[in-house]
Amino acid sequence: MKKIFSLAIICLMAAPAGAVTVDGSSAGDGYGAALAVQTNETSFGDNKSELNAGYGFISAGKLNLFISGQIENNFNKLEIWIDAAAGGQSVFSSAGNDGAGNMDGLRFDTAFTPETHIIARNGNAGTDKFDLDFADLLTPAVTSQFDLFGGSLTGSGTVAAGGPANVSAIEVGYDNSNVLGVGGGGNVPTAADQVAAAAVTTGLELVIDLADLGYAGGDIRVSALVNNGGHDFAANQVLGGLLPIQGHLANLSGVDFSTINGDQFFTIPVPEPASLALAGLASLGLLCSRRRS
Ligand SMILES: [Ca+2]
Ligand SMILES: [Ca+2]
Ligand SMILES: [Ca+2]
Ligand SMILES: [Ca+2]
């Protein structure tokens, strides 16, 4: 009896994490604690362009990423860089898409060398739309998916599989309904209320296949920030955050994160070693299946 009980516990632990609901909300998805929380009130507009906190985990061959907050629906940009492998860029050089070359010359923290750059943007160009670019910086190659949510600023959609920069589909969810989190009042911000920032549960949610990130093990590092429509005038909303009180970063081509206090990235850890070890026990999995049937 005792043996059966122990086995049941182990089976429970070995079960893969449930798939997230990709809807732009973190509710019920098990992201856990924030990996970075905003440090400055937004210099770009309260509840328009603010990044409150960053979350993520690696499971079942996917990176699950959630950034709470929103970007203004005037085609301001949410820039996301992902460092998932050895090598990569120390100084940003764009893949040539969407005017991102205006950021060329941005120097990252020493411990952050991305291979991937994502641009998310939304606004009205005749009809409401939400677009996402997924760029492999090393090839370079870019997949651009326009109007992900079918005429809406928000919703759930998919970057199609088989693009120039992605083999597998990328799941995208966006919810801009946050009215809390950090405050803002133009370019004279104060330090953020981090309790309020950590409480926001809506924003951008992405599920990306690890192979499309060049992942070969280890943790994954992510940097995110808010930029303007031309990629040439950034707000102060960076994750990991900037030492308060910090106003606009302005043109990123002259910015060097390696000389700015703190990490302008956050780290998504590898899954718990205990879980990995258990997951690797295929025979145990079979045993669990049999006992449940
Ligand atoms: Ca969700
Ligand atoms: Ca707010
Ligand atoms: Ca790298
Ligand atoms: Ca830094």
Write down the overall mean pLDDT.
90
Note the main sheet: 7 strands, antiparallel
* Dominant shape: globular
Radius of gyration: 20 Å
Estimate the helix proportion, in percent: 10-25%
How does the helix and strand content classify structurally? Answer: alpha+beta
Low-confidence stretches: 1-16, 282-293
Total domain units: 1
Q: What series of H and E elements makes up the topology?
A: HEEEEEEEEEHEEEEHH
Quick structural gist:
The protein is 12% helix and 28% strand. The protein is an alpha+beta fold.
Descriptive report:
- The chain has 293 residues and is of the alpha+beta class.
- It contains four helices and 13 strands.
- It has one domain.
- The strands form two sheets. Strands 4, 5, 6, 7, 11, 12 and 13 form a seven-stranded antiparallel β-sheet that branches. It has a six-stranded antiparallel β-sheet with strand order 1-2-3-10-9-8.
- A hairpin with a 2-residue loop joins strand 2 and strand 3.
- The site of one calcium ion (CA) has 7 residues, from loops.
Main attributes?
alpha+beta, 7-stranded antiparallel sheet, 6-stranded antiparallel sheet, 4 helices, 12% helix, disordered N terminus, disordered C terminus, binds calcium ion
